[in-house]
């Protein structure tokens, strides 16, 4: 077992540790990079924007997400399984698609114009719209995370409390307090995903630390990486400390392991069922049907004055399908591959960490840094790592034959998706470990000890004991990581090789000029592809069961 942990440690250091180390080493080696801190006013503005951005997102997302999770996971609400499926489906909607849909609806010349753009600006901008869109992007994750946490609450405690008080007071005084660890994890998840991504801040012109990092690196210069890291170092350090401090406490606050396997108690809504169903249907229409209608409206606009034409809509959609259909399929397959790769590595990491406290702390420290680093910094560090490897294999700038040439082609010259896979694997490995760890820790130690006494090898222990008990959670992890990877831009954009562009990056570049017919067609094409894939998965799941 020791040799397996050492091997896994080497793999994690090589794949994750090296790209994380380059930004830290570079910023410590270049004193001139710290000159950026002389502009205190600008940095205070960035800090204020980042704080307001995340505070506004949490204020909107957590209350709505917790109430919705209770309705969908712990009550007898009609059609709750359908709503849960739609929430899970929303996880696979990339953020650029979400922003484009709402811009096509509420922006200038949109279907339902709500605010006016500033002169010369093609995009709706500002902190308010950014918080609104980021809350919509984070809401499905909060619902899913909190919802599953609600199903882990001890049934006996709730049944005893129901003998004394009503359902509402049981939810408030028993269920939610016992679920505080998962609610805290959902809040931490939202904070990390918000502060480390640039998609919404970049498109809506909200200057946060992550956006500033990207701008500093884009400005160029030998100290571009060091300047970028210098800007973000205090934020990264605080996030790293928060993860190191909170994760063990959240883990200890989870309900006892034996209670998680019991079916949760279902609270009866009584006469309020119809009211809550109507509210959820109204929210569903407002948050899905309306923006999709905005994209369809944009898709069919033509002529002067602008008028909507169904024939034009079909023509533009068919043309986009012919031109970009294979690219979308490629991106979906790539996302699934990243999900499988990351889930497998996360399972082995959790299994190894469960039996050794020192290894567990080392993994937590490394993955906390990977999660705390903004996407652009991670992408820049990976790019530097790849450049060092290429220089070692091509010291005179000429490609060698054999394995060295193959490796430089895969990592640098392209076309190759290997750097994109590597970047996304680093970004979402912490997420996968966070999802799988509560399940792996539930594996009875008696089974592991029995397997070891019977002479099972580490490989047999993993495949015969760990995998059968965690297979369902691993499949969910594959889907969640695939959903995250499908819309990832911040890190992978910086390491893409020539000729290996991803669909989400294409959409991100095109949408900076506004939501025109082509962007609307691309968004709808991706949405239809996600729906078709989801339908196929549901069909396979029902047949498999």
Polypeptide structure, described:
It is built from 21 helices and 2 strands. Helix 15 crosses helix 17. The protein is mostly helical and 545 residues long. The protein starts with a helix and ends with a helix. The chain has 2 domains: 190 residues, MetI-like fold; 250 residues, MetI-like (MetI-like fold), CATH 1.10.3720. Strand 1 and strand 2 form a beta hairpin.
Strands in their spatial order, largest beta sheet: 1-2
CATH topology of the largest domain: MetI-like fold
What's the CATH superfamily of the largest domain, by name? MetI-like
Helix proportion: over 70%
The domain count comes to 2
Distance between the termini: 35 Å
CATH architecture name of the largest domain? Orthogonal Bundle
Please provide the count of β strands: 2
Summing up helix and strand content along with how strands pair, one would put the structural category as mainly alpha
Could you give a short account of the major beta sheet? Answer: 2 strands, antiparallel
Provide the succession of SSEs.
Answer: HHHHHHHHHHHHEEHHHHHHHHH
Rg, alpha carbons: 24 Å
Low-confidence stretches: 115-123
What CATH first level of the largest domain would be assigned?
Mainly Alpha
Q: What fraction strand?
A: under 5%
Q: Which overall shape is indicated by the principal axes computed on the Cα atoms?
A: globular
What are the key terms here?
MetI-like fold; single chain; mainly alpha; 21 helices; 75% helix; 545 residues
């Amino acid at each position: 077992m020791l040799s397996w942990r050492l091997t896994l440690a080497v793999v994690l250091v090589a794949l994750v540790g090296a790209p994380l180390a380059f930004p830290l080493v570079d910023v410590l080696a270049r004193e001139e990079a710290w000159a950026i801190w002389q502009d205190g006013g600008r940095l205070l503005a960035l800090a204020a924007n980042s704080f307001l951005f995340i505070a506004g997102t949490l204020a909107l997302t957590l209350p709505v997400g917790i109430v919705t999770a209770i309705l969908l996971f712990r009550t007898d609400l009609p059609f709750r399984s359908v709503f849960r499926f739609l929430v899970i489906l929303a996880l696979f909607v990339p953020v650029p698609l979400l922003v484009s849909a709402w811009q096509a609806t509420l922006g200038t010349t949109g279907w339902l114009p709500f605010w006016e753009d500033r002169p010369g600006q093609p995009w709706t901008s500002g902190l308010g719209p950014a918080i609104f869109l980021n809350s919509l992007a984070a809401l499905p994750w909060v619902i899913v995370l909190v919802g599953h946490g609600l199903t882990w609450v001890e049934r006996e405690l709730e049944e005893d409390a129901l003998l004394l008080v009503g359902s509402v007071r049981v939810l408030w005084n028993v269920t939610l307090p016992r679920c505080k660890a998962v609610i805290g994890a959902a809040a931490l998840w939202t904070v990390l995903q918000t502060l480390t991504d640039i998609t919404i801040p970049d498109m809506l012109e909200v200057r946060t630390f992550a956006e500033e990092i990207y701008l500093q690196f884009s400005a160029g210069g030998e100290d571009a990486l060091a300047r970028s890291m210098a800007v973000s170092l205090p934020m990264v350090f605080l996030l790293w400390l928060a993860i190191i401090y909170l994760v063990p406490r959240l883990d200890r606050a989870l309900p006892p392991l034996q209670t998680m396997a019991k079916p949760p108690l279902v609270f009866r809504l009584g006469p309020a069922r119809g009211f809550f169903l109507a509210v959820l249907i109204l929210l569903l229409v407002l948050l899905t049907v309306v923006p999709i209608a905005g994209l369809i409206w944009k898709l069919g606009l033509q002529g002067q004055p602008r008028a909507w034409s169904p024939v034009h809509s079909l023509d533009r959609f068919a043309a986009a399908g012919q031109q970009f259909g294979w690219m979308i399929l490629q991106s979906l397959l790539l996302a699934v591959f990243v999900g499988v790769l990351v889930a497998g590595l996360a399972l082995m990491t959790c299994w190894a960490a469960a039996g050794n406290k020192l290894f567990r702390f080392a993994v937590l420290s490394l993955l906390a840094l990977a999660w705390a680093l903004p996407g652009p910094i991670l992408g820049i560090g990976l790019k530097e790592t790849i450049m060092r490897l290429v220089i070692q294999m091509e010291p005179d700038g000429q490609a060698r034959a054999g394995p060295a040439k193959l490796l430089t082609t895969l990592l640098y010259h392209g076309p190759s998706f290997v750097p994109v896979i590597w970047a996304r694997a680093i970004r979402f490995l912490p997420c996968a470990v966070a999802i799988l760890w509560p399940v792996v820790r539930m594996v009875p130690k008696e089974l592991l000890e029995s397997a070891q006494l019977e002479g099972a090898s580490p490989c047999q222990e993993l495949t015969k004991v760990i995998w059968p008990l965690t297979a369902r959670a691993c499949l969910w992890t594959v889907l969640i990581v695939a959903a995250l990877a499908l819309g990832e831009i911040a890190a992978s954009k910086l390491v893409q090789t020539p000729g290996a562009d991803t669909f989400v990056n294409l959409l991100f570049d095109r949408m900076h000029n506004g939501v025109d017919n082509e962007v609307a067609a691309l968004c709808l094409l991706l949405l239809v592809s996600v729906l078709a894939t989801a339908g196929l998965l549901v069909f396979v799941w029902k047949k498999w069961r």
